[in-house]
User: Fold this.
Amino acid sequence: MNRLGFGFLILISRLPFWILYRISDLFYVVLILIYPYRKKVIETNLRNSYPELPEVEIKKLRNKFYRHFADLVLEGVKNLSVSKDQLAKRFILKNPDLIRTSIMKNESLMLISGHYGNWEWMITSLANWFTCRTIGIGMPLSNSFWDKALNKRRSRFGLEVVHSGNYREVIKQDEANLILVLSDQSPSNTDNAYWMEFLNQQTAVLFGAEFMMNDQKFIPVFFKTTKIKRGYYSIELIPFEGNLLQTKYGDTTEWHTRLLEKTINSQPEFWLWSHKRWKHKVPDNIEELRKNQLKRFNARFRKI
Assistant:
């Protein structure tokens, strides 16, 4: 069944864009009128993030999200077979020289953002833009067949997909590595998460990106996604200003999360609102937790 389903998606992915967007139009109608996917989760997330908005505006935002989500699903299917040339025309990197200069120096960088715009095209495009080693860090899917099948298609232009627990095994210290991380998932272990206000709510933010930056001396770079129009996106690279080795605990997590928040607030409908990102409650011992996290960070990375 898995192979049959994947084969069917491959066939659909070979359809031209204009047909896929007609399918997306039908899918949008289904989401609005028949099967409102995770409607309660989406509306709750929007209400808590924008408490000043009246209910009518919340519902408008929900429908705008459904419109983008329908396109996103079909664009994700198209990603299984989209050509390099098609992707290059539709997913544009505005300032590649920011990274190419570091690559020439054999410096390794971490590109970090969240599930905003079209991250699947970002994953596939990375090796299309740069000649250095490109690595996508993430968690595997629960279904091993789909995990292997999807990652094979994502990596067909040269990207290496690596489990977050194995990143040290693939990093080569004598050459440039370009690491891609999406850091807006809900962490499984809140004891290791960084707690901060995000979209008007106390939020447990994954600390893994900051840990990896300091562990491997990756240069932090935020990638800001803008949806130009239907099926067209652009990426702007925003470097971290400052010396990573002089940062304090939480500095880079605050930095990239604030940039993501600003991006979301500019056009909220393009973020993935259908996930339960605030399912964790703030720990009762939050102050003690922060002190212990700071102590561990300094002992490992700052020798304090």
User: Anything to note?
Assistant: Residues 96 and 237 are 8 Å apart (CA to CA). The first strand starts at residue 91 and ends at 93.
